[in-house]
Amino acid sequence: MKSLEYLDKFQNSFLEDLFDLIRIPSVTRDNKSVQEAANWLEKRLKQTADFVQQIPTQGNPVVIAEWKPQISEISAKVPTTILFYGHYDVQPPDPLDKWLSPPFEPEIRDGRIYARGVGDNKGQFFAHIAAIECMIKSNQLGAHVKLILDGEEELGSVNLDEAISIEKEFFSNIDLVIVSDGPADPTWKPTLEFGARGIVTIQLHLQTAKGDVHSGNFGGIQPNPVWDLITILKTMKDDTGKCLINGFYNDVFTPSEAALDAVKKLNRDPEVYLDQLGISYFGEEQDQPLVHRLMFRPTFNIRGFSSGSVKEKAKTIIPKEAYVELDIRLVPNQEPDKIKQLFFNHIEKLKRTNDRYKQILERCSFKSETSFYPMFTPIGLPWTEILERSIQKGFGEKPLLIPLAGGSLPLYSLYKATKKPMYIIPYAQPDEDNHAPNENMMVEWFVKGVKTSLYLLENLAK
Ligand SMILES: [Zn+2]
């Protein structure tokens, strides 16, 4: 394949370009740097694409690009249109003192590129760009390729719907969507995922008094907001990990035979998780098999609880307020708005149950910011075989088929716009440390990613 030779020859120049992009510290809330990264991408993509545009939104711009097929093996056939999704915004780099090299000065050590945003997600989508360019330069592109680069993924892609609605035409006539994000399976096998869990977050703030007070002088009369929030939280989950909110599990999908079969083949060993996570028992729904808890079941998680102070800052007080934040992971057929509604129905029911709950909840305020729909593409579609074959050639081994990834991605916006199957193929190795200090991506995985995209583009043209 000529495009592979091109990759061999220009691999270093692709890496240099990727490094230039990484040097722009496009932390989502740093609008100036994000704009600089969008401009850089626009200019870079214009070198080979037939069409490039920045779609302005109320937040950061979305960059789109398009490459028309150069060849068609069967002249009468309509070429396949593939859409690649990636995001060019990154997480903040703190804590800075934990980095071995500065986060925005990419450095290769032991075959890994260390930098904020290299795995999440610049290195991963740049692999697609490199593959497209190898095909173009060797006159081999036989598929119609579109690319969308989000500038606000790390904040939940709140303006992605808006951007898509501005360029409706661009998102029509797409046959399949590929997302390369997140780490590959912990077993280090290449990974093909058919969907991702959704998410809803809810914040509770309970202020019970004007101020923090002496826990001796006023202990016994000033209510403690931590205990009171625990009282409320205990009504939402039982000791076996079941969520007690009425209707919470009503819409949970029943996995297909193919999905159950794929899960069986994953052969997950509980011991590996105990060891990897340093845990001695498993959480959440005790009556569900482990793999089901990992992908087929929703979770009801407390992601943070804050009040008073501890350790060297400890004071003998009754704190005046407490915050608790929930993140609820959703599985197919569960809808974020409906889950939120069920949560608030539960709150209203508590208020009617007794005066104790009522007193607490009347001082409590609620906020819900993030919500992503869950997404699931059936395993049995013909694309699966083409993708498996491309990954196998790119990585040199058969991929694991994962029915549902644990994390959440803004896939629903793309699904709504395209109504087409969507697949996740992570190009970053399992220990990429995304969102953490010393985020990294192995050069070898980057190259395997480029090759996978190359084979995919080649196979789609046939
Ligand atoms: Zn991320």
Mind explaining what this structure looks like?
The protein has 462 residues and is an alpha+beta fold. It folds into 2 domains: 2-196 and 374-460, Aminopeptidase; 198-252 and 298-371, 2-Layer Sandwich (Alpha-Beta Plaits), CATH 3.30.70. Helices cover 35% and strands 19% of the residues. It has helices spanning 2-23, 31-46, 118-137, 160-166, 225-233, 257-266, 270-277, 290-295, 336-353, 355-362, 383-395, 411-418, 443-460; strands at 51-55, 62-67, 81-87, 107-109, 112-114, 144-150, 176-179, 191-193, 195-196, 198-207, 213-214, 299-307, 317-318, 321-330, 364-367, 371-372, 375-376, 400-402, 422-424, 440-442. A 6-stranded mixed beta sheet has the order 1-2-6-3-7-19, sandwiched between helices. A hairpin with a 2-residue loop joins strand 4 and strand 5. Helix 1 packs antiparallel against helix 3, helix 1 (2-23) packs across helix 13 and helix 3 packs across helix 13 (443-460). The longest helix has 22 residues, at 2-23. It is globular and about 80 Å long. Bound molecules: zinc ion (ZN). Zinc ion (ZN) is lined by residues 91, 120, 154, 434-435. Zinc ion binds next to loops.
What percent of the residues sit in helical stretches (DSSP H or I)? Answer: 25-40%
Task: Just name the CATH architecture of the largest domain.
Answer: 3-Layer(aba) Sandwich
What portion of the residues fall into strands of 2 or more residues?
15-25%
What hetero molecules are bound to the protein chains?
A: zinc ion
Structural class: alpha+beta
